[in-house]
Amino acid sequence: QAPFAMKTPQLGFKPVPFGFDDKVVVPEGYRAEVLYAWGDPVGIAGNMPAFRSDASNTAAEQAVQAGMHHDGMHYYPLPLGATGSKHGLLAINHEYTDDGLLHVDGMKTWNADKVKKAQAAVGVSIIEVEATGKGWQVVRPSKYARRIHANTPIAIGGPARGHELMKTDADPQGVEILGTFQNCASGPTPWGTYLTCEENFDGVFINDSGNLTALEKRYGISNKDAGYKWAWEDFRFDLQLNPNEANRFGWVVEIDPFDPQAKPVKRTALGRIKHEGATTTIAANGHVVVYMGDDQRFEYIYKFVSKNKYDPKNRKANLQLLEEGTLYVARFDADGSGSWLPLVAGQNGLSADKGFATQGDVVIKARMAADIAGATKMDRPEWIAVNPRKAGEVYCTLTNNSERGKDGKPGADAANPRNNNLFGHIIRWQENAGDATSTGFKWDIFALAGRPDAAKQEHVGNIKGDAFGSPDGLKFDQQGVLWVQTDVSTSTVNMKEYQGMGNNQMVAVVPETGEFRRFLTGPHGCEITGLAFTPDNKTMFVNIQHPGEPDSERNDPAKPTAISSWPDGANAGRPRAATVVVRKLDGGVIGS
Ligand code: FEO
Ligand code: CA
Ligand code: CA
Ligand code: CA
Q: What is the band of 563 on the pLDDT scale with cuts at 50, 70, 90?
């Protein structure tokens, strides 16, 4: 572990004010530089097309360039097993596309090539990065450079492999899926792999038959997609023609960034939900524990405990650890205690007559299993962070829930204490005996986000220090500082209850003090999401997602550029999501 992990960290930077400008702002003494923006070549030898600022790159070119809408991210020192901070790999999610920006004329016309380009612009980038005399640079070409997108072959692992509900005409055995998309947050494993998480997968499927199954309804499938129009040109996404295809998404996918030939695997033992992220820790007894949120209003928090134990000397065996184990879902009781409820076929009412004959049934229908188990409906679980300085202490952002307390919806409860929860909160639990594999825990609310000057008490919150709302990204750095990134939606950012709070932002907090300090604000229309640190904590990588996102017509190619021209400037074309490098000018530890 890092040498920092022993002592209480201190925040030494001067906070930045709310941000209203079309730029990234960091504290005095820090510098932020763009490293890898949508359309930049990933670095595959002989195939490094430059970004064309009028968005005229083809689908084939997009498939070897940075995707859109950077999200979860991790830094891996090179080579495998090293701990250095000057040379490594970044694995970066590309969550979804803004087709208004992705094509020369946006969505004004629609065709199969545009669908192919959109499918090539999502998924994951693996890039090689190096600190040089001129700052951090992407190494091109690189033998590690790789793009994984919506048509990359991915194996099915775990209990859903070969299940009837996973079989399609194209994959009659139910063993291989084309692609991953809606890759939101992510997490590393101690054996050097990357877990990318499929969140709002329902948004690309259509079932127009008028007969939605209970399973489809529970996962949000309907007769409309979220505006991506894939099903119009690629019938794989039309559920009348391919009824099981949607079951093949909503998983955690394990990628080995060190081996560009390694086929990624959907780790179905971890359940099928709208996976926000996957945060791994090794319990004292050696089992692997993965914490996961299902980001939708009134959904649940899950954890997976591996059957087998981690062996630091046996990577080959570790690569199979997520194949088998126990999936749990959380119940938060009003007395401050909580339980992890096992989701196991044959237990807790998960019987064959209810549709759970096998563990494959349970994981494919994980939300329905969790309903039966009696889990607590949360205010949109987003990222989860494990405190490196306190065994078994875990934090989860609950970003917001405007429907809490509305007619016909659940009202406030102990763990989700505010109706009309527009600002969100951060919940914290302590696993019993500090053991991450425990089935019981104690919990409290670490922070109710808000603003002290709010008109309504329910929006004031209780945070010390700098105001924020809609916490989403959440990660501990190497020293034990907890970083919080906000995702105030474009329909409310700096408007309504958020009026005067500016663009999305990132704050830092030391758990022992509970004082939040604003470190970074982003450009117009962006979300701040995705965060990584080098082992020496002297370089921070942070993602700026969807700069220039318009408040409504995301398909209007004219409008977004008027909102933001970050990072290339007014004459350069369109705004681009990007990975930014933040360093201290004196070379010191970030946050100090
Ligand atoms: Fe993709 Fe829940 O954020
Ligand atoms: Ca998120
Ligand atoms: Ca969010
Ligand atoms: Ca997002």
A: confident
CA distance 351 to 347: 7
- pLDDT tens digits, 270-315: 999 999 999 999 999 999 999 999 999 999 999 999 999 999 999 9
- 39-56 pLDDT, tens per residue? 999 999 999 999 999 999
Any ligand 1 atom below 6 A from CB of 61: no
**Cα–Cα distance between 581 and 69 in angstroms, integer?**
16
Q: What ipTM was assigned to the predicted interfaces of this complex? A: 0.97
Cα separation, 565 vs 568, in Å, equals 6
Q: What token pair was written down for 34?
A: 């763009």
Q: Looking at ligand 1, which atom is closest to the CA of residue 184?
A: 1
- Ligand 1 lined by 184 (C-beta under 6 Å): yes
Nearest CA to ligand 1 atom 1: 184
pLDDT at 75: 98
Mind listing the pLDDT tens digit for each residue in 353-405? 999 999 999 999 999 999 999 999 999 999 999 999 999 999 999 999 999 99
All domains of the chain in start order, with CATH = 3-199+250-584 (2.120.10.30)
Q: How far is CA 485 from CA 19, 31, 185, 405, 563, in A?
A: 14, 18, 12, 26, 21
Return the beta strands (E) in 297-455 as ranges: 297-299, 301-309, 325-332, 337-342, 378-379, 381-386, 393-398, 425-431, 440-448
Exposure on the CB side of residue 117, measured as CA atoms within 13 A: 23
